Amino acid sequence: MDAVIFDLDGVLIDSEQVWDEVRRSFAAAHGGTWTAEATRAMQGMSTPEWGAYLVSLGVRLTAAEASAGVIAEMEKAYAAHLPLIPGADETVRLVSSRFQVAIASSAPAVLIRAFLDATGLDVPVAVSSESCASGKPAPDVYLAAAAQLGVDPALCYAVEDSTNGLKAALAAGMTVLAVPNPHFPPAADVLAQVRVLSSVADLPDALA
Asked: Could you tell me which InterPro entries the record lists for this protein (predicted)?
């Protein structure tokens, strides 16, 4: 194996709840009606995709305006407090001493950069699905990260937390390790296809 590709939200930062709260509030403030399936549906979507999804909920803005508004609120939330998962930054440092590393995330590039700046991590490749044709569960962002690393996807580990993220990494042909999100647990049938870790801090030993 040549590389380890990390998801960001739910794996390195405990941000899924923040995204959910910000999107819910934003939708309500702009005429939208939240649905029971909205939270899980948007997990893994690229920025253009979830912007359009918010419009489908009745938000009275364009998809671009909706996504820009939510991202601005997320930037404010991160500036106040970056919800780093305990041990996540040290895990990336340890893993990067043995493997090439990358981030393949549904988060917009500006928020990936905020994470890297806050932690000081040197991750040479960080790909946002907003630059890809399709977000997760499509494999595009993982394939793009592997391509930028110059590594065969079959020689990559992927570390994920959500159903759509796990599906994306599996579809990319990678060896997948799951750190299940405790707030939004992945589907059992998808977890059955991957190796499950109790925390991201267990990753270095799992790769031994």
From this structure: HAD-like_sf (IPR036412), HAD-SF_hydro_IA (IPR006439), HAD_sf (IPR023214), PGP-like_dom2 (IPR023198)
Q: Give yes or no: residues 25 and 44 share one domain.
A: yes
Give the position of tokens 């709840």.
17
Say which residues have a Cβ less than 8 Å from residue 26's Cβ, sequence separation at least 6: 32, 54, 59, 66, 69, 70, 73
pTM over 0.70: yes
Q: Tens of pLDDT along 106-165? A: 999 999 999 999 899 999 999 999 999 999 999 999 999 999 999 999 999 999 999 999
- In single-letter form, the type of residue at position 1 comes to M
Domain region containing 20:
16-80
CA distance 180 to 187: 10
Last residue of a domain, one of 48, 80, 112: 80
Nearest Cα neighbor of 66 from 79, 41, 47 is: 47
DSSP 45-74: --HHHHHHHHHHTT-SS-HHHHHHHHHHHH
Q: Using the 8-state DSSP alphabet, how is residue 133 labeled?
A: S
How is residue 207 written in tokens?
A: 């790769």
Are 73 and 21 in the same domain? yes
